[in-house]
């Protein structure tokens, strides 16, 4: 069994060193490679092939000679080759290394790893916060918010303090396990197939707390905290945050994926509000990433996902919004053709102060649902307007002229915005699909209606369009700099049984497929719950930059994240 290791001439922050000096860069990249091999518990003799990607004018023979001297007699049989580096790369980077290393293959028996490390777990067994299969509480601790996903890790830890997080990470490393951090598990399906049975699931839902500084208009939020707790803590000070539509989503995962708010068109992605992130690295070190410290990591964490460490706290800017005009308009689904076309035209004219969504919704006849939802098929427009009452009424008038059955738009405390979108109030099984749309012409609306509109027999629960643009389209300094698209499509289907989950996969994919002609080709991390979507999050240069940061902070690939950071 072999593995590939990439090494580049960068420092611990991911910044290029020795610009335009190919010899110095080659030596630094080789030193980093040596450390990476040792960190994986392998001898240098495990090196089998070394490829130099060369963008300099340095002769290949000279580069090979430098490496031969560094390799020495112990690795004289290593195959070394020099190839032209034709990829996009940072200015001044002339060489990089690609190594093939022999690694011991794990053994398996009847689908269960027989690696003695996994059968022992000596270090993890010493921790009170760790539960193993068969322990009381293991099943509950493993259960994600998305109940359609079954998680059966080698062990699960539920830390309540940062010190306990550090201890769990350190013990997992000693026991040879990878680690999957998870706060709520809304997007658990994205990591479900990533060998969790050989990993530590690190549940952070007990690591919570919010500290608000009203003078600075900031909040420090512990790693497992939910948005509803942040909003509740900020509200008495006349403040709120760039939270999402659901209060029971965890702050950290939402921000790592970018964060889309009903304040988004006015204030941008929620990741842009992050001032600092405290996280535990794969080595068990607690570090603080900000614009001044670990700047490359800070850039990566603002929208680049969770493949860099365990987030134990974030500091965010708050918004001086005490109340807001928000609510929803509701019609029977039969009105969807008229309403959808009117909304599409309306969104092309409204100012950035307005962020709304359009949803085609189907509800089962459940007694716990209010009568206006239970057993009904509906079309709903909801969102927020950062305007005074008179201007808000003017802007809403074209939609109100469509005679909605229910109209709840009005001024409310900003904390009330969490209830407007009617997200499920408790853990729910579901599957979804998603697409970013460049526009919403008449033909696109027709395609949406044909897939999910009135008269369509489908188990689909929701087909939703979020209006983007405005500040969401203007870049900030983060791995997910902006959202490339005018609208985001999100389709979800209930999945209480494996059979319905399989059917849900088909119908949600069909909705996304119907809108494919208008797709930008990109995806939004917070909405992309399928594990193969990460290559479409950002531009190739940004993905390569993310890989370099990942290689610095997680060279052994310890972390299992919803969307892996990988090269194209």
Number of domains as seen in the coordinates: 4
Overall pLDDT metric: 89
Measured by DSSP, the beta-strand proportion falls in 15-25%
The CATH C-level name of the largest domain is Alpha Beta
Main sheet properties: 8 strands, antiparallel
Shape summary = globular
Number of strands: 23
End-to-end distance, in Å? Answer: 22 Å
Q: Which fold name is given in CATH as the topology of the largest domain? A: Vanillyl-alcohol Oxidase, Chain A, domain 3
Q: Which structural class is indicated by helix and strand composition?
A: alpha+beta
Give a brief outline of the structure.
The chain is an alpha+beta fold and 568 residues long.
Secondary structure elements and pairings:
Layout: E1 2-7, H1 22-39, E2 47-54, H2 60-71, E3 79-84, E4 95-102, E5 108-109, E6 112-113, H3 116-120, H4 122-125, E7 130-131, H5 138-142, E8 155-157, H6 162-174, E9 178-182, E10 199-203, E11 210-213, E12 218-222, H7 227-234, H8 251-256, H9 264-267, E13 274-280, E14 286-290, H10 295-301, E15 310-317, E16 323-332, H11 336-347, E17 354-362, E18 377-385, H12 389-400, E19 406-407, E20 410-413, E21 430-437, H13 442-452, E22 462-467, E23 487-494, H14 498-514, H15 540-553
Helix pairs in contact: 1-2, 11-13
Would you mind describing this structure in some detail?
This protein has 568 residues and is α+β, with helices and mostly antiparallel strands. It contains 15 helices and 23 strands. The protein has 4 domains: 101 residues, RutC-like (60s Ribosomal Protein L30, Chain: A), CATH 3.30.1330.40; 96 residues, Uridine Diphospho-n-acetylenolpyruvylglucosamine Reductase, domain 3, CATH 3.30.465; 127 residues, Uridine Diphospho-n-acetylenolpyruvylglucosamine Reductase, domain 3, CATH 3.30.465.10; 209 residues, Vanillyl-alcohol Oxidase, Chain A, domain 3. 26% of the residues lie in helices and 23% in strands.
